Amino acid sequence: MSRARQIAALAASEPGGALVWLDGGDGRGFVALEPDIEIVADDLEGLAAVEALWRAEPEFPWFGWLTYEVGTAALLGRPPVAATLPGLVLRRYRAALELGERERIVGDPRAGAALMARLERGSWPSGQSWPLGPVEAQVAADDYRARVRQAQAFIAAGETYQINLTQPFVAEWLPEWAGRPLAARAAAVYAALQAATPASMGALLAVETGRPCGRWVISNSPETLLAIELGAGEDGGDLARSWPIKGTRPRGSDPERDRAAQEALKQSTKDLAEHVMIVDLVRSDLGRLARPGSVRAPARPELVTLPTVHHLVSEVRCTLRPDWSLAEVIAAVFPGGSVTGAPKRRTVEHIERLEQRVRGIYCGAIVALTPDGLRCSIPIRTGVADAAGLWLQSGGGIVIDSDPEAERRECWAKMRAFERE
Fold first, then answer.
1. Residue 350 is inside which H or E element, if any?
2. How far separated are the first and last CA of the chain, in Å rounded?
3. What is the pTM of this model?
4. Would you tell me which of 173, 185, 283, 382 could form a disulfide with 219, CB atoms 3.0–4.6 Å apart?
5. How far apart are CA 200 and CA 185, in angstroms?
6. What are the start-end ranges of the H helices in 304-393?
7. Catalytic residues, which ones?
8. Using one digit for the tens of pLDDT, what is the confidence trace for 88-120?
9. Pfam families recorded for this chain (predicted)?
């Protein structure tokens, strides 16, 4: 049995603890089960306690999340808006299995052996069906188009240059799955996503500790907010990198149409301008904690092809100042510019007016702190599963020449991974 099937079986078994299964980018991921410390906070100040423990005992990994509202509260200097999930949850694990070309235990070897024993006992049945019904928008098409036009009015008034506007979706559980444990349903969704539409920063996380867990985060995200590699920068400094995504086309239905979609995206003046705007924002964010002159970004983005869409992606990098702290570096880049727009501070205020709902973990950050550094995803293509179904959001960047209906269709294109014929 493959390792992925063993992990899915463990997740489906109502394992207790607080299971986390990450695809951490560069072919590297993690699975962990039993946390020994949990830090929960309503703001980014909780990061100081996490960092103190991580730096004191860096061999033990930490996993968890930050909600979008925690980031916007810090940005705007106000208390966070109430959301359905705690704003900051980070859990330390005695051991995690690092996944990739060479598996290894990170942390305590005895705790790692216990985790491996749990994994080896798992049995994931072949031929699992898809648990979810059709994805349904929770905002009417006319309403979403009107919100796009309102965003463009803000842009025309000089309030902002680009607004990332999202909308909610839901997929309910199919009747034949409704009686099964929620853990089994969530594991089936994530295992199917990972097999059919793998994403470099995908994740399955238990929201609550213990058994049963009443909510699960399911992420099919391809986007990295921030990666820090200790000692990998200039002159042995710490290297920080971000990969903002901006610019999307749905995959074509045949090879010829798919090539045409790629070319259209690469040659799109609108998408390139939108992309450069966000890259400049990320460069500025990283520059706040960078060694002078170390910030780098490419002249043009790369085209990245995923199972359902094409994207424009750029790598922005720098070497951090020696005295950086976890709270400072997260505050500098969070929330990610690709999911806010520019300028960031004013734009997030307009997002609140337009969307009229909290984003929660969607567009926040899923965090991994390991002995060699930090990795944060931006959880786009991400939802929270509960007894009713999977609650999702999707969006895109609105600029002055956006077509409202095209923007609405782009939201649906990004939901395709959660649809089945």
1. helix 344-355
2. 27
3. 0.95
4. 382
5. 22
6. 326-333, 344-355
7. 223, 246
8. 999 999 999 999 888 999 999 999 999 999 999
9. Chorismate_bind (PF00425)
